[in-house]
Design a protein that fits this description.
By secondary structure, the protein is an alpha+beta fold. Helices cover 36% and strands 18% of the residues. Helix 7 crosses helix 8.
């Protein structure tokens, strides 16, 4: 019987206890290799897939939903352990899955005979069918006819497992599809929230996969640091992270957040063809969907020599470091999100207008729930508490409005039974720390 979402499985607690240490990096230091070998234990991916499906089905039962219809490729991967053209399918309706509250998943694969065999043998999938694509891209003027056929199939499948229950959770669906399902008697409910809650607590296998993904990310970061010299462009530097990600089996990078010199202030300027100059700060946020589909979301700020950083650059960096390390002490199990918001490091007034929008956020197959906001942000507070197995990213951006430069830092963290572990071992910038 799957656990309720706010109960941490004993197997996870046992894993965390085995990895308790005075070192904040012990799990990161124990990251295994990725290749199959018969002489050592491997990541049990079948166990990973079963855990994730159990988490999702537990949420469905708690919400009294007979099933979920998932269209978002991230949720489809979580439920099935499969992928196919994920980025393309983020904006094209052509692959989805049906998850009953009990039993195996039905995967509706991209409608090509070449794609149908790809997921065979995945133990959580009971049936693979061709997707009925009805978006305007696929169907054109036949969109409504195709949508009716799609809805008929979904409703027929739903009625085979639902009994008297008419509640279907949906994560993402255009109005035409929503209307078609409701016209056939289904009651649609919010599905993304269920997926986010399910995804929030990671299994030991997921944590191991995340550390492997982080290893690939840090290789890319190290190559960026080594290549950082005057005359390299922001785009050339950013390409090194992409190259490492693909080289080691990763997926994609969600943003283009690398900037240098004056483009580091304000934050969120995308990588460009600007040539990096001596004495520039270079700030970046990886936002990398790496091996096994797990997100590596860390930020660093480098100094481009020759020469030494200015006092102003060191001061900005020191404040960002102070924010990260102060807030890190709040990452312990049982701490309410609201309490973190209330007790978090207060950004000095001169930097507050450009502070990062959140103190922290969840991370897994992408950036995830929760988002923990500043106490004076004016946003509604997300309720909940930190639990062992959650993975969290702490954020900092320090840059004065109209200032010359800014510093971006971010740490990715695992909540353990008694505290936390740092999932990234990549060092901070020595020249800026002195």
């Amino acid at each position: 019987m799957p656990n309720e979402p706010d109960i941490v499985e004993e197997t996870l607690l046992s894993f965390l206890r085995r990895n308790e240490s005075s070192s904040a990096y012990i799990l990161a230091k124990r990251t295994p290799g990725i290749a199959l070998e018969d002489t050592r234990t491997q990541v049990d991916l079948a166990k990973l897939r079963r855990y994730r499906l159990d988490r999702l089905q537990s949420q469905l039962k708690k919400a009294d939903c007979a099933a979920a219809l998932l269209n978002d490729p991230i949720n489809v991967r979580y439920a099935t352990g499969t992928r196919n053209m994920a980025v393309w399918l983020l904006h094209n309706q052509g692959r989805y899955c049906f998850v009953p509250a009990e039993g195996d998943v039905t995967l509706f694969e991209y409608p090509s005979m070449n794609c149908l065999p790809m997921a065979r043998g995945i133990e959580v999938i009971g049936d693979i069918r061709p997707a009925k694509a009805w978006s305007y891209f696929f169907a054109g003027e036949h969109q409504e006819d195709n949508c009716r056929a799609w809805a008929d199939e979904i409703v027929k499948l739903f009625r085979t497992i639902a009994g008297e229950n008419k509640r279907l959770a949906v994560d993402r669906l255009d109005p035409l599809g929503t209307n078609a399902l409701e016209a056939r008697g289904l009651s649609l409910s919010e599905g993304q929230a269920l997926c986010e809650k399910a995804r929030s607590i990671k299994s030991p296998e997921e944590i191991t996969c995340m550390t492997i993904a982080m290893s690939a990310c840090e290789i890319g970061m190290a190559r960026m640091r080594e290549a950082l010299k005057p005359g390299i462009s922001e785009n050339q530097l950013w390409a090194l992270l992409h190259h490492a990600n693909i080289e080691f089996g990763g997926e994609w990078i969600e943003t283009r957040l690398l900037s240098s010199g004056g483009r580091t202030n304000p934050w969120f300027q995308e990588a460009s063809d600007r040539l990096i100059r001596p004495g520039d700060l270079v700030s970046f946020d990886t936002d990398m969907i790496g091996p096994f589909g797990y997100c590596c979301d860390v930020s660093r700020t480098f100094f481009c020599g020759p020469g030494q950083p200015t006092e102003e650059q060191r001061r900005l960096y020191s404040l960002a470091m102070e924010q990260i390390h102060y807030n890190l002490r709040l990452i312990v199990p049982g701490t309410a999100f609201r309490e973190i918001g209330e007790k978090a490091w207060k950004v000095p007034q001169r930097y507050s207008t450009q502070r990062y929008a959140s103190i922290a956020h969840g991370v897994g197959l992408s950036d995830e729930w929760p988002v923990i906001s500043h106490r004076d942000s004016g946003r509604a507070v997300q309720e909940g508490v930190l639990l062992p197995g959650m993975t969290i990213c702490l954020e900092s951006y320090i840059g004065e409005a109209d200032g010359a430069e800014g510093v971006k830092l971010e740490q990715q963290i695992l909540v353990t039974e008694n505290g936390h572990q740092l999932l990234s071992t990549f060092p901070f910038e020595d020249a800026l720390c002195t």
